[in-house]
Amino acid sequence: MVKSISRLRLALTAGAGCAILLSATAWAPTAASEESPKRSTLASADSPGSAASLEDVLDDPRLLAQEKAVATAQHIQEVTAEGNLTGFTGTRVAPDAVTLYWKGELPAAVRDVVDTAEPVTVAVVSVGFSAAELDAAAQALMDNPPPGITSLITEVGFSNDFAGLRVATETALPARSAAPETTADGIPLRYDVAPQAVAAAGRWDDNAPFWGGGLIVNGNSACSTAFSVVKPSGTDGLLTARHCGKNKQWKTPTGTVVGTSGDGSVARDAVVITGKSYQPYVFKGPYNSTDVNKRFGVRNIGHPSLDQYVVASGAYSGASTIRVGMNNQYANIRDFGRVGPGAWAKNTGGVASVGHGDSGGPLAGNFNSAKTSALAYGIISAIDRTYLGSCVGYQYNGRECSTRSFHPYVTNAGSTLNFSIMKAP
User: Domain segments of the chain: what residues?
Assistant: First the structure.
């Protein structure tokens, strides 16, 4: 469907800000253009702040250098899932190199991928625990902290060598702490300190069929959308963050109804909006883009590798390249609850490229060579306030943004909410 543009401008101002939940607040709509009541811009070029267009982001040499390695890692994950194989723990990527962490003997189907991955080199590292074992232990530990852990647990997830679990607490544990060194199953625990994450909670005025990466509003709340999905009944929907709000009617800033959110899942920080028509595309322009040709299709669902460069694209900040620094993590989000599993990612250039208004937006990667399609990885959910910096994109007083952000996986949201990703032709 061809989508036209109206050069509508929205005046967004800061409302009574909440230091914990970072939803964008207080938007002021204007009337739609009579010339074309379709897509419009969120802000004009004279708005303060700036963000690189996603056109530029997709030319980022860090993304391009990892293309073959990321494709190989994805192939390994797909073969593992399709064959229902056990033993997979994780992958790490570098330019033309993949490290595969596996428990036990490598199955023949996976060995075939490893041996035929040229020009990518795949190193296989034997580990003591599978991803399923580590994930179960992480959830159990966060839900029922051992008595010896006397500080609030803020994060739990796989250690970056995949040999155990990293447990972060709000304050450092005493030197003579009674905190256990392993779980009951013998999984090593490594302790760290990290603050509680806070929800990072909009791009354009969209029209049906709606795409991911757009701005949605309800009252004074503004969030972003991620990816289009399909329920088993055949009902189409649009994914966003659960902390944005359940059982609410969402609109574009000019009043076009996008749909109504369901109950969703706090544990995955995901909710599906239904009631209108949606397509498997995501906007790939900057936060104030008016070019509807700037989009990419979603070809499948995926899981990022450790050290992989990916693209986050919230409706307020626009697109940015960020690097997965921790995988398979659970975050204790202040005033919301435990969310995960997901990835902590960081903008290695020091740009605070995720913040207010970006919640519910897409995290994508493994773009094809033409940069017209990608895999759906995660949802923009929360930020680490330890890494606050100057925001990019749309600006207003009180907006907070960070270089470090948390992204629960779309794969787990799909399993919990019973949806599949909508795929572009």
Answer: 47-62+198-421
Does CATH place domain 47-62+198-421 in 3.20.20.70?
A: no
Residue 81's H or E segment, with its range, is helix 67-82
Is it true that the peptide bond before 341 is cis, omega within 30 degrees of 0?
yes
Please report where in the chains the tokens 């921790």 appear, as a residue. 326
- DSSP calls for 216-278: EEETTEEEE---EEE-TTS-EEEEE-GGG-SS-EEE-TTS-EEEEE---BTTTTBEEEESS-E
State how far the Cα of 8 lies from the Cα of 5, in Å rounded to an integer: 9
Which amino acid makes up residue 368?
N
Per-residue pLDDT reduced to its tens digit, 28-83: 433 332 222 223 333 322 233 344 555 567 788 899 899 999 999 999 999 999 99
Q: How far is CA 335 from CA 19, 181, 243, in A?
A: 11, 29, 10
Phi, psi of 98 (to 5 degrees): -130, 135
Rounded CA gap, 91 and 72, in Å?
10
| Gap between the Cα atoms of 425 and 57, Å rounded | 24
Joined tokens for residue 309: 């460069």
Whole-angstrom distance, CA of residue 85 vs CA of residue 105: 11
Residue 268: how many other CB atoms lie within 10 Å: 25
Instruction: Calculate mean pLDDT across residues 134-162.
Output: 93
Q: What is the pLDDT of residues 82-141, one digit of tens each?
A: 999 999 999 999 999 999 999 999 999 999 999 999 999 999 999 999 999 999 999 999
CA–CA dist 421, 348 (Å, integer): 29
Find out whether 311 and 373 touch, Cβ atoms under 8 Å.
no
Q: What angle do CA 164, 167, 172 make, to 5 degrees?
A: 135
Between strands 11-12 and 27-28, the pairing is antiparallel
Please tell me the distance from the alpha carbon of residue 271 to that of residue 269, in angstroms, as a whole number: 7
Q: Residue 180's closest CA among 211, 145, 153?
A: 145
Distance CA 283, CA 5 (A): 13
